[in-house]
């Protein structure tokens, strides 16, 4: 049963990543591991990549095309989980428990799932094909009060081979999909159209 439309959004929470574990035989559809929660979400800001290209004729903009190359931006979190460092950034744990970064490691692609709260219902999002760059290493001295420092991941989200970039729920999304949003990555289903 549809709910009312949101008028506003606020509150980032339920950030998860789901590693891409493989692709269909034709290389167009990814398979994903079970989503893993990234606790301590502070801020997510991704801007669209692409541009509008006008074509001029008859002294006017005769035709205009828009390019959707995905999104780029950042995810600020309290602390990068070790699971993300190992699964996605491809750091390795040695026999003594050291987490080791290697310059030759290739990072993994993943889906990024997250939720914004709304005044009527929560809106859940997924960016289907993301990469993350290594975070900066930074800290500062403790003063009279303890101010937590955060980690920031730079994120690039590109289209899948069929052009799909992201999905989100709305007031007509089925309860089954909404309730299972963070249990698996839900790809679009356009069958029967």
What does this structure look like?
The chain has 193 residues and is mainly beta. The chain is 6% helix and 42% strand. The chain is built from two helices and 13 strands; from the N terminus they run βββββββαββββββα. It has helices spanning 82-87, 175-179, and strands at residues 9-23, 30-32, 36-37, 41-48, 52-57, 60-66, 71-77, 92-93, 99-100, 110-118, 123-132, 151-157, 166-168. Strands 1, 2, 3, 4, 7, 10, 11, 12 and 13 form a nine-stranded antiparallel β-sheet that branches. A two-stranded antiparallel sheet has the order 5-6. Strands 8-9 form a two-stranded antiparallel sheet. The relative contact order is 0.24.
Shape verdict: globular
Assess the beta-strand content as a share of residues.
35-45%
Could you give the count of β-strands? 13
Query: SSE string, helix = H, strand = E?
Result: EEEEEEEHEEEEEEH
User: How widely separated are the two ends?
Assistant: 21 Å
- Radius of gyration using CA atoms only: 20 Å
Largest β-sheet summary: 9 strands, antiparallel
Overall pLDDT confidence: 90
Structural class: mainly beta
Sequence stretches where pLDDT stays below 50 over 5 or more residues: none
Helix content: under 10%
* Helical stretch tally: 2
Helix-strand blueprint:
Layout: E1 9-23, E2 30-32, E3 36-37, E4 41-48, E5 52-57, E6 60-66, E7 71-77, H1 82-87, E8 92-93, E9 99-100, E10 110-118, E11 123-132, E12 151-157, E13 166-168, H2 175-179
Antiparallel strand pairs: 1-2, 1-3, 1-10, 4-7, 5-6, 7-12, 8-9, 10-11, 11-12, 11-13
């Amino acid at each position: 049963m549809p709910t009312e439309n949101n008028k506003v959004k606020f509150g980032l929470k339920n950030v998860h990543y789901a590693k891409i574990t493989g692709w269909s035989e034709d290389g167009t559809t990814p398979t994903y591991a079970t989503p893993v929660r990234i606790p301590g979400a502070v801020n997510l800001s991704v801007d669209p990549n692409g541009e509008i290209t006008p074509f001029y004729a008859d002294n006017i903009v005769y035709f205009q095309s828009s390019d959707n190359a995905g999104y780029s931006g950042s995810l600020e979190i309290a602390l990068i989980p070790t699971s993300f460092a190992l699964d996605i950034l491809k750091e390795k744990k040695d026999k003594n428990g050291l987490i080791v970064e290697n310059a030759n490691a290739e990072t993994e692609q993943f889906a990024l799932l997250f939720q914004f709260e709304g005044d009527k219902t929560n809106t859940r999002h997924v960016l289907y094909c993301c990469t993350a760059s290594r975070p900066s290493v930074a800290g500062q001295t403790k003063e009279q009060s303890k101010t937590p420092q955060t980690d920031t991941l730079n994120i690039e989200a590109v289209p899948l081979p069929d052009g799909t970039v992201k999905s989100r729920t709305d007031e007509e999304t089925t309860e089954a999909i909404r309730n299972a949003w963070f249990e698996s990555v839900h790809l679009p289903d356009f069958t029967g159209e």
